[in-house]
Specification:
Number of helices: 5
CATH topology: Rossmann fold
Radius of gyration: 16 Å
Strand order of the largest sheet: 3-2-1-4-5-8-7-6
CATH architecture: 3-Layer(aba) Sandwich
Number of domains: 1
Number of strands: 8
Shape: globular
Amino acid sequence: MRIIAGSLRSRTLDAPPGLATRPTSDRLRETLFNVLAPRIESAVFLDLYAGSGAVGMEALSRGAARVEFVEKAPAALKVLRGNLERLGLKAGFRIHAAAVGTTLRRMQADVGLCPGSEPSRGVVPEISFDLVFLDPPYDAAQEYAATLGLLGGSLLGGSGAGLLAAGALVIAEHRRKERLEDNYGLLARTRLLEQGDAALSFYAVIA
């Protein structure tokens, strides 16, 4: 794998071993960022199920202001940290070594979205995201509904969208044959791109 464009263009990246993590291909990543190009400069980017971190690092290379990586697998975390070190990135990011659902709920607690909740340690308070990318492992298809539901607020009475900035986009990478819902709470699908066996579903907050 490599960084496609930006300040870190052509720098190579390692991928986690085995089949538990599926790295986003260079070609699909290029397609994704061609769509996001007008939005990426100075954006706050959330890379869920980050794996090697290639998507979030591409965002940093292209001018994102900050990236939050979320990954719980020890092998993937090791590769993610190694890639950041290899690229010489020391600022502008944070790694959450925890499950995606746990991390999102902690973030929601910190912005007061969970009634009766206490602000958690180690999570940036009052953060909102311009761009969110998620690509769960092959054996965790149920994570799409759970994560998109949290982001869309359907699991929290409509409050989950508070993590998303005005005009935010949520992008899910999935198998082409795996059909996602058109709506998750306050999120509505606005675009579907298919490439080979993979697909990208784009969601925006319903006005």
